[in-house]
Design brief:
Two copies of one chain form a homodimer.
Chain A lengths: L7 E2 L9 E3 L23 H4 L5 H8 L5 E3 L2 H10 L4 E3 L1 H7 L4 E6 L10 H13 L4 E6 L3 H13 L2 E7 H6 L1 H9 L3 E5 L5 H9 L7 H14 L3 E3 L6 H20 L6 E5 L4 H15 L6 E7 L4 H4 L1 E6 L8 E6 L21 H8 L4 E5 L1 H15 L5 H20 L4 E6 L7 H8 L10 H8 L8
Parallel strand pairs in A: 5-15, 6-7, 6-9, 7-8, 10-11, 10-15, 11-14
Antiparallel strand pairs in A: 1-4, 2-3, 4-5, 12-13
């Protein structure tokens, strides 16, 4: 073992970054603005005010300020679970027999089980600061809902979570963690909102969808005094909060004079990827350094690699704002056989613009290969990874094996976003050999893309 | 926030202890020897050789050597998940409004979810060193089985786990983690052993018991060439391996010149409690320092507080050795309503002797109070604790509240042995208000104690 670099690089608590970095400030081509779905005009602070918290709206629309101070209360909360370790994957390197040096930033060592807590605590803080009574949100698998429940519990805010009905029934344990943190969980669609009642009257047997849960959560926010809606990915503000991942990673690497060659992150809505790569991307945009950055997405939901860069609705219900992004069409839903998360049809507008400008590459991977990497990783590195995170592991292993062939000693850094303790049904499918790959046909994708809204921008 | 003491005290990797401490070396009254259940004579190395690994048997019987070197391979493995943090519970202190200073040693940040991995890796190492093909064990809730699966995967050892049938069926996720690490899981009782077949023929509808699973695992070990049996608690060797917890805790405290007044651990078979308190107990035995040490057990399985200090069988099946310990009788089984783990009828012989000699105190707590503490802790400290660990949290909170009354600024250290991610059924019971307390009557306990084996020692 190379004893000069510890197995786990921990920053000390006073080294935790005190500012978030806004990569938009360094982008020449700014991300396109969100559009009001009614007027198709760029959203203003006034448009956003009834739905989201004030301070968060300012963060959302600010393309120029490079750094935002992290409020002290958030810094205090960070101390519960940050700094997260940057781990040198010595055991994985040895198992692969690669000359590559592999590092992963592990965000799973908290009860929410993922990086989602980084934005949840920020959004809960600003809601509290605004004097709100509570917030509403939706959750599918439950990671975001859990993170938000923890954050709201800390600030004594009411937390109302609309949980996709099939998840509510199939994942009672996720639901129970949220209840333990005091959140109110409603299976969606429900009788508590107009949109829920409408959907139930038309489709009494529906098991729900994320699109429907979003609609209910938004309605609940705007119809209750003192409530706002919060969202766990895609938005610019979320990427901003998640830069704590990349900033810590860079600080830890700098401490040991390590310069990464390749940086890898999984991509669903983009919050983890954007957070991890932002500081490195900033250097790249400013011409100070170069890195190979790779986004990894599921072959069953390939927004970057097979989607179109165009304005589209952010939700299946087509009531949310439009974003210019890589999209498979707002009606695209990945196969039910897909087990690995990262199911969003679109992508962060920031990442979409950067990808469009050729600043990073993207790869789509099939889920059996993803779980193959997961098991290999778990057995040598100890951690049982979340299916989402395994997409990044897959490509990190692929790149390390290329180094084995070429003899190159590249330094690879990837984001290990979370743990898989609540995803064991997917592991069971893989362990039992019943997991299959599902790749949408060209015809399927073309059909959904043909339905993109016509926006003259 | 007191910024002089960090929220989390992490030792550096080169500060991880390189020796385990054997508290027996400092005990004037040594723990009574295990007895051969056939001859009622003290067990010898020869008696133990067919069942357990050689090196482990030496550790088991050694009452004199104060320190054992930790083999380098185990030290390497430690780096995956150790040092574990010693956390200052600033948020809990604030919520309680106590002048007490509360610290907890958190052993849950690994995929097995608990401290069990500390002994699993040691036992797997010695099995590998002896050239064995594999090991067998039993598991109830699954923590120990998961830890052993991880350790065996690391050393490429076959791992055969007999899992109590009702757990196998009710906890498919625990089972799946073990399978992911390559272990073979058999629901017990099974058709794979004589004892299993016998039980099934007599009780075809049984859902199994830990006692039966132990019997099957032992039979599987002694009837397969190159296999031995391993056990996750109670034994002297297990306490020895678990002293890594206490040694790290003491080193972290010493680093900041912190002297604890009270040390609290939950007690089932005693592995966590013994591991945490051993170094402090050693100072107490040598007259170098004094500490108030508190063992916390469930009121539904109160070995220390209502059991008898006597020789008894270690298993329900009465085929395992006899140990002199605090016991409720080998036929005692806690109520099925009991959700909090720590179900063993007896206790480590080391801890039993120390308790008998008045070196620490014990308290029994009811489970609704335990989960009340769990939820309070989770909401302010972020971590969702294992039900076992919550017993220690309960008493830590009680002691901190006493300090609030008296104004004393005591320093309290407790062991947070693991996370509750696989125990959410119990949380659901608590959150729904359907959890009840079950305390055995005096008559019940007297009935079981009347059946203790007659041993003239």
């Amino acid at each position: 073992m190379d004893t000069k670099i510890p197995y786990k690089i921990y920053l000390s608590e006073n080294e935790i970054p005190t500012q978030w970095y806004n990569v938009r400030a360094d982008m020449k081509n700014k991300p396109a603005p969100l559009l009001n779905p009614g007027t198709l005009q760029p959203l203003t602070l006034d448009d956003l005010a009834p739905i989201f918290c004030e301070e968060l709206n300012k963060q959302e629309l600010d393309n120029d300020t490079p750094y935002f101070d992290i409020p002290e209360e958030i810094q205090n909360f960070y101390k519960m679970y940050r700094p997260s370790p940057l781990v040198r994957a010595y055991f994985l390197e040895k198992a692969l027999g690669t000359p590559a040096k592999i590092y992963y930033k592990f965000e799973g060592n908290n009860t929410s089980g993922s990086h989602k807590l980084n934005s949840a605590i920020a959004q809960a803080y600003y809601a509290k600061k605004q004097g709100l009574k509570g917030v509403t949100t939706e959750t599918g698998a439950g990671q975001w809902g859990t993170a938000l429940s923890m954050a709201c519990s800390y600030f004594d805010l009411d937390c109302q979570v609309y949980m996709v009905k099939c998840s509510y029934e199939q994942k009672p344990f996720r639901r129970e963690v949220m209840r333990t943190y005091g959140a109110k969980i409603t299976p969606s669609p429900s009788q508590t909102t107009n949109v829920g009642r409408k959907i139930l009257s038309e489709h009494p047997d529906t098991t729900g969808s994320l699109g429907c849960a979003i609609s209910e959560a938004v309605e609940a926010a705007v119809t209750q005094e003192g409530y706002r809606y919060v969202l766990g990915s895609v938005l610019n503000q979320v990427l901003l909060h998640q830069t704590i991942i990349g900033l810590e990673t860079k600080k830890a690497l700098d401490k040991y004079n390590i310069k990464p060659d390749i940086i890898i992150g999984c991509a669903g809505g983009g919050s983890n990827l954007g957070g991890l790569v932002s500081p490195f991307m900033g250097e790249k945009l400013r011409g100070e350094a170069d890195y190979q950055i790779i986004a990894v997405e599921p072959a069953s939901c390939p927004s970057f690699t097979r989607g179109k860069f165009a304005y589209d609705f952010c939700d299946t219900g087509m009531i949310c704002p439009l974003a210019k992004m890589y999209t498979l069409g707002s009606q695209f839903i990945p196969s039910a056989n897909h087990a690995g998360g990262l199911r969003f049809h679109g992508m962060s507008t920031i990442l979409s613009q950067l990808y469009h400008d050729g600043l990073f590459e993207a790869r789509a991977v099939e889920q059996t290969q993803v779980f193959d990497a997961a098991v290999q990783f778990a057995r040598v590195e100890g951690i049982l990874p979340a299916p989402e995170s395994c997409h990044a592991i897959r490509v990190a292993i692929d790149e390390a094996l290329k180094c084995k062939e070429t003899g190159e000693e590249k330094t690879i850094v990837f984001g290990l976003t979370g743990t898989g303790y609540f995803d064991l049904y997917a592991y069971e499918q893989f362990n039992s050999g019943t997991m299959s790959d599902v790749i949408p046909t060209d015809e399927t994708i073309a059909t959904y893309l043909a339905k993109l809204p016509k926006v003259d921008k």
